[in-house]
Specification:
Layout: H1 3-23, H2 29-33, E1 38-42, E2 48-51, H3 53-58, H4 71-74, H5 96-105, E3 110-117, E4 123-135, E5 138-147, H6 149-180, H7 188-216, E6 224-227, H8 228-240, E7 249-252, E8 260-263, H9 265-282, E9 288-296, E10 299-306, H10 332-343, E11 348-354, E12 358-366
Parallel strand pairs: 7-9
Antiparallel strand pairs: 1-2, 1-5, 3-4, 4-5, 6-8, 9-10, 10-12, 11-12
Helix pairs in contact: 6-7, 9-10
């Protein structure tokens, strides 16, 4: 018997021992089989020694034996037609599974997203996490794979939707502005309404796009010098002239602090705009919404006040996603305030509401966004 044959026999025996070892944990198999994510354990040569039922379901492996197979072949990816995962293979070079295995071999934990194409031509998207596992002299990789194919597709469709809708809405605003400037009294009120509605449409599309990007974690921050009173004046002018402001007043506090801060003015305008919008929706006819800002140490504090009170049973849920007192499908405004401010503008958002003082929403931001 040659040395190569002996080496292969030893490897096969060790593989059988590894598979048998994990079979002793039959008590946890039902729990792992009921999980929605794929769970598998690979040995040092990337052979599968343990897998849950979700792996068989996700790749239509019913009736097949995958224990002992290389992960590439078991997952039916284009690069693993021969069961081998090879970094020299063009299909493997960007594969998150292979990179996860390599990271574990270096003693590192890793979490990342990846995609690969199966031999049937299906594009699969996964979020992968990997951890090292040592059992005696054996070194394994524990791999968890969450299928995000539908999530990725939805993200792509959202991006296309917002892009196409803004391409249509932008020219509409331009044409509405030109129509509004026609020097005749006839239909002037109707032209103004069309112009205002087109502005609101573009603003709402941008708001939903920013929120979607923020939740996906890929919202781009553009820091630039921003004058606090310019922001407040823009909000006052915009909302006072909208139908939402009809019969209500939007004013700027006379002692509003004037300061140039370095932040993202678009996101700041989005946060404060939601505050103003909520305040106007909550206000009665002839009531006033007051905008202000003050300097607190090395931070700037923006405040939007209205005289109405938020009910006690509503207050604990204000910043929850999709919670609203205005009906199904609402409730993203306050949620986005907190998300944008605390995750992207490095600030804090809060509120206080009582019968004596009405409702005051506050956004406190650093003077310098790093």
């Amino acid at each position: 018997m040659t040395a190569l044959m002996i080496q292969k026999l030893d490897h096969d025996n060790e593989l059988s021992e590894q598979i048998a070892y994990f079979k002793t944990y039959r008590a946890i198999q039902p729990m792992l089989d009921s999980a929605q994510d794929i769970f598998l354990i690979l040995n040092e040569t990337s052979q599968i020694v343990f897998a849950n039922q979700q792996l068989y379901n996700a790749f239509d492996l019913k009736g097949e034996s995958i224990l002992g197979r290389k992960v590439g072949g078991a997952l039916r990816c284009m690069g693993g037609k021969t069961d081998e995962c090879d970094i020299a293979n063009p299909f493997c070079q960007s594969c998150g599974v292979l990179h996860a295995i390599q990271a574990v071999r270096d003693g590192r934990q890793i979490e990342q997203e990846t995609h690969f194409t199966t031999i049937q031509g299906n594009l699969q998207n996964f979020r992968i996490s990997a951890h090292p596992l040592v059992v005696g002299n054996w070194h394994f990789s524990m791999i968890t794979m969450q299928d995000i194919t539908h999530e990725t597709r939805r993200h792509t469709l959202e991006h296309i939707f917002f892009h196409d809708l803004l391409n249509l809405a932008g020219p509409m605003v331009t044409l509405a502005a030109l129509l509004k400037e026609v020097e005749t009294n006839e239909d002037r009120e109707l032209k103004t309404i069309i112009y205002d509605l087109s502005l609101r449409l573009v603003d709402e599309v941008n708001a939903q796009r920013d929120l979607a990007n923020a939740e996906h974690g890929d919202l781009y921050i553009r820091v630039q010098p921003t004058y606090t009173l310019d922001i407040l004046n823009e909000l006052k002018s915009f909302y006072q002239n909208q139908s939402l402001g009809t019969g209500r007043y939007v004013v700027i506090a006379p002692d509003a602090y004037a300061e140039i801060i370095n932040t993202d003015p678009v996101l700041l305008r989005r946060v404060l705009g939601n505050m103003v919008k909520n305040a106007l929706e909550a206000s009665m006819k002839n009531q006033t919404v007051t905008l202000s800002c003050t300097k607190v140490g090395e931070e700037i504090q923006f405040t939007v006040h209205n005289p109405t009170v938020i009910p006690d049973h509503v207050q604990p849920h204000i910043f929850q996603r999709s919670f609203s007192t205005k009906g199904k499908g609402r409730g993203l405004g306050t949620y986005s305030m907190k998300l944008l401010t605390e995750r992207y503008l490095q600030g804090q958002v809060g509120f206080c509401s009582d019968p004596q003082n009405g409702t005051r929403f506050v956004a406190r931001l650093p003077l310098e966004l790093s």
